[in-house]
Amino acid sequence: MDTRTQYPPSACPPGLEPEIERELLRAYIDSANDGIFVVCDEMKFHVANPLMATWLGVSETELTAHGRRMPITELFGLTETGALFREHFRTVLEGRATRFEMEIDPPRGEPRWVEISMNRVRLNSGELVIGILRDVTERRLLQTALQHHTRHDDLTGLVNRREFQQRLHALVGNAKTRRGSHVLVYIDLDQFKLVNDSCGHLAGDELLRQLGRHLKRLTSQRDVIARLGGDEFGLLLHDQSIEEGMRVAETLRAAMAGYRFAWNGRSVEVTASVGLCSIGSDTVSAEDALSAADAACYVAKDRGRNRVQAYSGGTACTGRRQEMQWVARLQKALDENRLQIWQQQILDLRHVPGEGAGHVEMLLRLIDEDGAIVAPDRFFPAAERYGLMPAIDRWVIQHLLLDGQGGRLQAEMARIRATHCAINLSGASLNDDTFMDFLEDALRRTTLAGDRLCFEITETVAVSHFGRTREVMHAIKRFGCQFALDDFGSGMSSFSYLKNLPVDYLKIDGSLVRHIAEDAADFAMVEAINRVGAALGLKTIAEFVESEAALRRLREIGVDYAQGYAIHRPQPLFG
Questions:
Q1: If you average pLDDT over every residue of the chain, what do you get?
Q2: What is the DSSP string of 283-319?
Q3: How far is residue 258 from each of residues 255, 306, 376, 501, measured CA to CA in Å?
Q4: Structural contact between residues 279 and 237, judged by C-beta atoms closer than 8 angstroms
Q5: What is the model's pTM?
């Protein structure tokens, strides 16, 4: 017996009756989690599911009432949205499906972002367009928040450096094509570190937040105000001359100078140095403009802070700008390992010439991108001003004492019969705890004995950071290392400190040594330093010895060591 279901002739197995199909289709439309609509080629409603009607704030009956069907664009509430919908609707009528996002704000519904997909269908009664609306408000809000985060500074809410640079690029391009005039303003707080040190970093952050809001209120909506990093702010003034920019910059400077920051019952005065430059058709690039404004700002600081300085192309501005350009070149040279260690031998005057070097000092050269050798006096000022000296000193230590070089250095010292190797340390490195940790670790790991190393510190650094210098010296001397005070006697004011600093050598400043054979005053000063050194049990080293006559006078005085072109010209250490 066949137990399968038997269908009457009028049925359409395995399908359903047309009425049931329509009911199921309608049930699906009504229960959908998306808005669904069907409109004619005039964009008037034929179908709108309950969710669609709810979003629009109009019942389906009102939307689809015969003879009074409503165009869908009347319910979006935004002119630009209606125009966007009509554009895509024409695409659909041409037979191409479309998908796009837009914002709607119905007069009787809630504003939201929707993704709309539309297709054209052809029926016997004519062409219709079926559309599906999906609510993407949450995603759009998240995207907006992420975009805001990538373009704005988290602390102040101002535009961040990356976005500022993009807008600066656009403004420079605009000036080239439209030949307009704009102004870039660079603002750097004076002595901000004192706020962090005296009140703490929370206070520093709050000060930056307050100043960010303050600057925002003082600038027009069209202008772009940004936090460029740390305590630095940038401002783009559209369609303004440099004279107008100076007035704006002076207003900002005065407003900040009059600002009082209160923290835990304390009131802190705030001042700023401001640099600015014009942006016109002759501006080379955004980077060039930023470099000019930054250089002008540094000149303002050099001239006493709390002032405005326009970039003029004069000696002060161009000199500062050249220093700043050296920063990028130096950083690149470090990254590409284009520094080179040279050596200059130091003669022990107690031994006859030809018996070898008493000491050897490590010097530094930079190999430029074109292969040229650059002396340190060209790039050290920029390195010192912009905080690159610890990185340079780290490179020197790494290449002298680590990476297998300790043995190689020891062999080179044996070849020239040098008893000690002198290495310069900058003041910035002495005050950098991470560098000092690195140095102590290097001294523990190197194959070169510590008692063969002598670290040189300038007299100026030793006196300016006396407590820290003494602490570092005692720490490093545990490894057997020695210390020399470099450029000693340039100030003639530090003799009293010598009794409290564990130094081993005094390197007499070259400006006193160079003319010792002809200048009686220089001779007397070198002689006095040598006597003081001897009284304290310190060895003396004369720098810049450039003639046999000077060498003879030093022997007369009884100076222990001599260094200069008359003895040995610097050359690559491992060359």
A1: 87
A2: ---HHHHHHHHHHHHHHHHHTTSS-EEE---SHHHHH
A3: 5, 11, 42, 44
A4: no
A5: 0.58
